Amino acid sequence: MTTMVGPFTGATPAREHVRDVLMPYGLGCPRIAELAGVPGFREWDVWVLVNGRPDHNQPPPAVIPAAIASAVRAIDPVPAALAGGVTVDGLVFRRRMQALAAAGWSAAALAARLPCEPVHLRLLLSGKRTTVSAALDRRGAALYARLLTAQPPQETGAQRAAMVKSQRWAQRNGWWPAGAWDEGEIGDPDARPHPEWLRGPAPAAYGQARCGTPGGYSRHRRRGEEPCEACKASRRKPRELSPCGTPGAAKRHWRNDEECEECRAAERRRVQDAGRRRREQEQAGEVAA
Question: What distance separates the 2 farthest-apart alpha carbons in the chain?
Answer without folding.
Answer: 113
